[in-house]
Amino acid sequence: MLPHGGCCERRSSHSANSSHSNTLYQCAIWEVGQGLSRPRPGHHKTARMLEEFAPLALVTILAALQQAYFALQVIHARRRFHIPPPAVSGNEDFERVYRAQLNSSEYYPLFLSVFWIAGVSFSQALAVCVGVLYLYSRYKYFIGYSESALQRLRPLYFGATMLWILIGLASLGVLSQLCSRYLGYNPMTAARSYVEL
Questions:
Q1: What does pTM read for this prediction?
Q2: Residue 149's pLDDT is what?
Q3: Of 38, 40, 79, 181, which residue is the catalytic one?
């Protein structure tokens, strides 16, 4: 709370005093302290937004940890099969681990982009469910490919299906938002209204 009389009043009352500059300094320090103690503009809005998208952020962290795990498995395979960098061939078992990690990292940016767009523009709950299934399929793909090239196929197809679902959800969400903004008609809202009837 502002001191009694306020800084301006205090300044005028001490204008004839030799400690005028000291009073101004104390007043400035007080005002800085008050500014630091106040919430920043938009702070509450940012906090609410972070809470709202916490499930999407959690799946994103899991995806990043999964990529880190795959990379560590490649390092372990290099030591196990004696393949020093920068070599990426020379042992079939190592090459399968390396290819599994490389393939997963190639799809990682695509997954993140459509996952977030689907979660923000269509349905966060649906995007999170499909995203978790995709990460599970990627794990099974990595483990299967590390053991045999044939064992990668089923998780690969399942993961591709989950990715296409995310692409579809993201596309529907963006198109609905564009229609709502430029045409004044949101097909998703109309569809929900029709289902409720």
A1: 0.74
A2: 92
A3: 79
